[in-house]
Amino acid sequence: MRTRHREPQTLGEGTLDRMARILAARNIDPATVAAPAQEPEPFSPLEALSAGMPPRYRAAVADHPQVLAWVRTVAEAAVAPNQGARRQVTTGPSLLMAGVVGAGKTHQAYGAVRRLVQSGVGVRWRATAAADLYAALRPRPGADSERELAAVSRCPLLIIDDLGAAKASEWVEEVTYRLINRRYNHELPTLITTNLAIRDLRAYVGDRVASRLAQMTTRVEFEQVDRRRPRLAA
Description:
Blueprint: H1 13-25, H2 45-51, H3 65-77, E1 94-98, H4 105-118, E2 125-129, H5 130-137, H6 145-154, E3 157-161, H7 170-185, E4 190-194, H8 198-205, H9 207-216, E5 217-221
Parallel strand pairs: 1-4, 1-5, 2-3, 3-4
Helix pairs in contact: 3-4, 6-7, 7-9, 8-9
C-alpha cells in the first residue's frame, strides 16, 4: 500500500475573495482579524526565574559575603539528573538571616536564587512569607493542608520570609517543627529571614525547631539599619 503525500495547501485568490465578501457581509474589517499566533521568543533561565518573582525583587542582587558563600556551596553540590542535563539544586546547607525590618534580608534571599541561576544551575524553588504559609496550611473545608505541607517540605529550595512575624501558638510551633524537621532530615537548602534577634528565636519556634535550625543553618546577622527609610540630608 502506497502512502499518498499531500502538498501543503495555500489559499488561492478565489478563496481570499470569498473570505473578503463574507467578512464584508458581516461588517467585519479584515484588518481586525487576528493573524496566526507566532512562536514566542524563548526565555533565558534568568528571565523565566524573574517572571516568577515579585516585581520588587526581580533585579535583586546578593552581595553579602556569607550569602555569596552559601550560593557557591549550593551550586557546587548541584547534580545533573542524567548525562548532558543541566545540574539541579538537590541538597545543601541553609541560611538564617536575622536583622531589623528593612535591613535587606529578603532582597539578599531573592538575590541568592538569581545568583544560583546565573551560575548555570537549575533551581526549583518556592518563596512564602511565614504568615502566608500558616494561612495556607491551616485546616479548612475544601483544602488539603497535608498535601500542601508535603509540597512545601520537599521543594528543593525554599524561602521562608519573616519567620516570627505571625502570632505564636502551639499550632504554629507544631507546623513549623514538621516543616523544618522534614527539610532538616532531607538536607534541603532553606533561606529563612527573621526580624527576631537570634537569641529570641528559640522562645518563638520552640526548642526542637531551634535545635535543628542551629545545625542546618549558617546564621547571618545584618547590621541594625533600616534600608527602606530614605536617608535624611545631613
